[in-house]
Amino acid sequence: MDDLPAWPTGRLLLVAARLVEREWNHVLAGHGLTHAGFLVLHTLADGPLAQRELAARTYVEEQTIGPVLERLERAGHVTRERDPADRRRVVVTRTASGSEVYENLTASGAAESIITVRDLGAFREDLMKIITEIRPM
């Protein structure tokens, strides 16, 4: 790692993201979750969503969200039901168990304990700027 200062910013960001994700996945595994599962629970905080909309909001492919939801459903963290108004649509709802595990993880500051930076607020602002400038619409 002697050449770390010479790495381009993109490589630094990519490697940092992978390392943080690996550590975060270790924390989540202790709660029976994956990163994708945690994102689903976060996204459902404001209420039920159609499975397709949930996939879009979590930046997960529609083909990928099914197994994530299946695992969350088996754990009792979400329910999936056909929309009575449109039987083709599957509505996903976070359960009390899903809310509890999500709140426990966020209240504990587990994610922030993984990241060590001089100014977490400024770092977060920079990350949000990157995401809003690059994200596909």
What tags apply to this protein structure?
3 strands; Arc Repressor Mutant, subunit A; alpha+beta; about 140 residues; 3-stranded antiparallel beta sheet
General description of the model:
- With 137 residues, the chain is α+β, with helices and mostly antiparallel strands.
- It has a single domain (8-134), classed as Arc Repressor Mutant, subunit A, CATH 1.10.10.
- 61% of the residues lie in helices and 12% in strands.
- It has helices spanning 9-29, 35-43, 51-57, 62-74, 96-108, 110-114, 120-134, and strands at 49-50, 78-83, 86-94.
- A three-stranded antiparallel sheet has the order 1-3-2.
- Strand 2 and strand 3 (86-94) form a beta hairpin.
- The radius of gyration is 17 Å and the shape is globular.
- It starts with 8 loop residues before the first helix and ends with a helix.
- The mean pLDDT is 88.
Number of domains: 1
* Number of H/I helices: 7
Structural class: alpha+beta
Rg = 17 Å
Annotated CATH homologous superfamily: Winged helix-like DNA-binding domain superfamily/Winged helix DNA-binding domain
Low-confidence stretches: none
Fraction of helical residues:
55-70%
Strand residue percentage = 5-15%
Strand order of the largest sheet: 1-3-2
Largest sheet: 3 strands, antiparallel
What is the CATH architecture assignment? Orthogonal Bundle
Query: How many β strands by DSSP?
Result: 3
Mean pLDDT over all positions: 88
CATH class: Mainly Alpha
Shape: globular
Order of helices and strands: HHEHHEEHHH
Mind sketching the topology for me?
Layout: H1 9-29, H2 35-43, E1 49-50, H3 51-57, H4 62-74, E2 78-83, E3 86-94, H5 96-108, H6 110-114, H7 120-134
